[in-house]
Amino acid sequence: MDINKISFRVRYGETDQMGVVYHGNYAQYLEMGRVELLRGLGISYKALEESGIILPVISLSVNFKKSALYDDLITVVTNLKKIPSVKIEFDYMIFNEKKELLVEAHTVLAFIDSKKNKPMRCPEDLLEKISEYLNSIKKQV
């Protein structure tokens, strides 16, 4: 199982009258991708928040290549390419079931101490899990 891939069907309510996915919905698709990647690494957003760490998006870049349509089965591929520090960066590609590239995107999230409302470094236990994941990817290449 690829922890960096999630597939789902485009719902009717996510589209406009032409059956094309409304561009604002892609941010939610990206969130689904990164949440599932982290979950696959044993990192829960919920547990992070309960421990006083929040991860707001501080940068979002989306490059639209082709439209996703109502009832398309789309796959979000999410990648981490480097060790996080005070921020964590994700790269994404979204494909339809024909394997056509629909979107390329990039997000940057900041680690924030929710009690102090100040940036903080990535917790050590997360660094270990992410480092193991990145090392396993390097060995596969």
Q: How many β-strand stretches?
A: 8
Percentage of residues in DSSP E strands = 25-35%
The biggest sheet amounts to:
5 strands, antiparallel
Cross-sheet strand order for the largest sheet? 1-4-5-6-3
The computed structural class is alpha+beta
Helix and strand succession?
EHHEEEEEEEH
Number of helical segments with 4 or more residues: 3
Radius of gyration over all CA atoms, rounded: 16 Å
- The percent of residues in helical segments reads 25-40%
Euclidean distance between termini CA atoms: 17 Å
Uncertain runs are none
> Which descriptor suits the 3D outline?
globular
pLDDT averaged residue by residue: 95
Question: Mind sketching the topology for me?
Answer:
Layout (H helix, E strand, L loop, with lengths): L4 E5 L16 H15 L4 H6 L2 E2 L2 E8 L8 E8 L6 E9 L5 E10 L1 E2 L4 E2 L4 H17 L1
Antiparallel strand pairs: 1-4, 2-7, 3-6, 4-5, 5-6, 7-8
Brief rundown of the structure:
The protein has helices spanning 26-40, 45-50, 124-140, and strands spanning 5-9, 53-54, 57-64, 73-80, 87-95, 101-110, 112-113, 118-119. With 141 residues, the chain is α+β, with helices and mostly antiparallel strands.
Written overview of the protein:
The chain has 141 residues and is α+β, with helices and mostly antiparallel strands. The chain contains three helices and eight strands. The protein has helices spanning 26-40, 45-50, 124-140, and strands spanning 5-9, 53-54, 57-64, 73-80, 87-95, 101-110, 112-113, 118-119. The chain has a five-stranded antiparallel β-sheet with strand order 1-4-5-6-3, with helices on one face. The radius of gyration is 16 Å and the shape is globular. The model has no long low-confidence stretch (mean pLDDT 95).
